Amino acid sequence: MRIAQLLQDSIVDGQGMRFVVFTQGCLHNCQGCHNPSTHDLNGGKEIAVADIVKKMASNPLTDGLTLSGGEPFLQVQDCAALAQQAHQLGLNVWCYSGYTYEQLTADNRYLPLLQQIDVLIDGPFKLYNKSLNLKWRGSTNQRVLDVGGSLATGKAVEYLL
Ligand code: SF4
């Protein structure tokens, strides 16, 4: 898969200690994006999912995997495989996406990854909704969602912090 960066031991990309995969490639073009170097679909570098899993498994203190970007849903199959491996290691999976939950559920191509995510921070970053007081998200339009609960009930369910 194509990534911008791997980050170990993050405490700001979700609950607990996280292994973060910043995927490379994004088409959302959010004004004020904090990570514009991740937009180029041909940027970053290629790495095998198995190599990422080895790094992810190397720290027993890690609580979970966070997929960030870039846009993880541009690499559905690789991200889904990685998330599945994370679950097998006993880790939870959080994911940031510029798509809303409703956009993701409207397209079956996204399901393999969506089904592997525990918590989704959804929607594009909107500069005019920016707030520094939000936990784990940059703008007030973004939601922190319980994906299992959302898929079970057929509507977006907030993750209770
Ligand atoms: S979805 Fe994320 S990476 Fe993509 S443009 Fe928006 S803020 Fe930047």
Q: Can you offer a commentary on this structure?
A:
This protein is an alpha/beta fold. It has one domain: Aldolase class I (TIM Barrel, Alpha-Beta Barrel). The chain has five helices and seven strands, in the order βββαβαβααββα. The chain has a seven-stranded mixed β-sheet with strand order 3-1-2-4-5-6-7. Strand 4 (64-68), helix 2 (76-88) and strand 5 form a beta-alpha-beta unit. It binds iron/sulfur cluster (SF4). Iron/sulfur cluster is lined by residues 26, 28-30, 33, 35, 38, 69-71, 98, 124-125.
Average residue pLDDT = 97
Could you list the spans in which at least 5 consecutive residues all have pLDDT below 50? none
Backbone shape? globular
**CATH topology assignment:** TIM Barrel
Radius of gyration: 15 Å
Strand runs, count:
7
* Structural class computed from helices and strand pairing: alpha/beta
Total helices: the number is 5
**Which strand order does the major sheet show?**
3-1-2-4-5-6-7
CATH architecture heading: Alpha-Beta Barrel
Helix content: 10-25%
CATH class: Alpha Beta
Number of domains: 1
Q: What would you give as the CATH superfamily?
A: Aldolase class I
Main sheet overview: 7 strands, mixed
Strand content: 15-25%
Ions and ligands: iron/sulfur cluster
String of helices and strands: EEEHEHEHHEEH
**Roughly how many Å apart are the termini?**
31 Å
